[in-house]
Design a protein that fits this description.
55% helix; mainly alpha; elongated; homodimer; DNA-binding; 5 helices
Amino acid sequence: MEYNTGLPIYLQVIHELKKRMVKGELRPGEKMPSSRDLAVEFKVNQNTAARIYREMEQAGYCYTRRGIGTFVSEEENMFEELKQEMAGELLTNFMHEMRDLGFKKEDIITRITVYKEDEEHDAGV
Amino acid sequence: MEYNTGLPIYLQVIHELKKRMVKGELRPGEKMPSSRDLAVEFKVNQNTAARIYREMEQAGYCYTRRGIGTFVSEEENMFEELKQEMAGELLTNFMHEMRDLGFKKEDIITRITVYKEDEEHDAGV
DNA sequence: ATCAGTGATATAGTTAGATAGTACACTAGT
DNA sequence: ACTAGTGTACTATCTAACTATATCACTGAT
């Protein structure tokens, strides 16, 4: 995983883990990597890994059992809701930014229609 | 202007100023606010304001004349290019994130088609 | 009882971002 | 010459994020 400049790493990892849940790569009730393994996988300190699970547990996405591990929440419905929520956030942010740049809805739809997979752009300052 | 948690303030201000250039609110050659005024307007320290102009100048979006002020670049073409570049970044990021969540192009177009102005969503962890 | 794997906690140190305050140097207008 | 407005520079301080390292406590299996 490559990290964005600016946004704190632990937030980026949380986002990545939430995506895995939404995509079903982490199933409800399934055991998540130990904090030590998470630290290795994401090349992060154990304290940071612990923070990631602490914050995710507080948000309800997982629960921990001391001495056993951290597990994906068993609230089956949560993840479909989360998927819609994340999509909604992406959409509104995207639309606001595009409108702010002066694009209209039709412009945006046109751009997406002609959008090709391999388009890449620089990330200038 | 309200600031995002996470992303450094100076990057958010730079983004805002770039948008103003793209939208024509800051015209080529026009004098930009003094670093002191910028600090006041964005409720930011003078050092941060100075950094904002320093980085923007390095990126070519403006130039400074000591004792006079900071001015929007006179490269007329730059800003239409910048507009396209920023739109391209927004689009690819958006598409990648949506695909990553499991949405297909048709799903995305449908969502945008039914998108209403006033949609709002929480910014959960 | 022991042990490996786990989460939880603690201390210390580094770095980047941001602030506060001050001072210096240049430019234009008077 | 003087002054106001400007960019530039410096020191000091603060906080959040992150790392390094180590220790403790709990759980399950042997």
